[in-house]
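Have a think about this chain, tokens included, and walk me through the fold.
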Amino acid sequence: MFDSPLSASAYDVLGVAPDVDDESLRKAYRLRLRQTHPDTGGDAALFVQVQRAWELVGDPDDRARYDRGHGFGEETVSYEPDAGAPQWRPPGRTADTRPRARSFGQPGGWRRERYLQLMREWVGRGTTLDDPYDPALVRTAPREIRRLLADALAEEATARAVGDLGMGYTVWHDVAVDPRDPDAKLDHIVLGPSGLYAVLSEDFGAPVRTRRGELIGDAVVGSPIADLVARARAISRAARVKFSGVIAVLPDDDVALPIEELGRVRGLPVAVTGRSTLPAVLRRGITGSRDIGGNELFDVRTRLQQTVRFA
């Protein structure tokens, strides 16, 4: 809520302009509370959003922090297209000496690079772009540009979560499936004792539901689960490995259940999970998935290392 480039801002929820003075902001908050209160016929979900918006901008110091970025530009990972496949580490974690998952590739790298390219084109040649992550600028960009940034942020957040799984896991990010189509990629491949999983990181900027093994919702375009399964099968054939299942990860606020297992799609078990519950799912596996251990774990990792190319 509020931290996605695709979602409404705190100011949108309160019905004011971002540069409104503090007194007008306070009046707008009280009005929106009355309008959305469930006891007066308002929407309970909107009532909660109004309260959350006020928590973010009601205090001058909090409002200043929110205006500086509220998530869009924080902890931005560096991206160097010619850097090969470096070992990735989340920013701000240099003091953490705990063993972490082995991680390769650049999470969100392709989409963040594409976002910067399209943002510069949209702003226009000759225009100085001091901060491409400025919230006021991001909110006014076309949805297809904001979607790129939202997905990049989602992939980076998932990378931080799976990095904490520990040294028994290996993760590949931004894995190319078809060299002719840069957008045809797997966001993450995770290998550990519970199995080998293809993971999709998504942020549609709105709640989603599931029906017949697929994600649906006003903001959902195409068939994300079907595409994920098809790409996992392509990597499976190329590397001669078997995936244990596929997992779609979304922001916690956008899923109805923390974990929802959808059964099998084209032979692969499928689960949809909120981001905070992803590590638990990867540690225990999903129903119908196959554990991998011993020499097989080493063999699968070797095959993937020899096959994986990055977007």
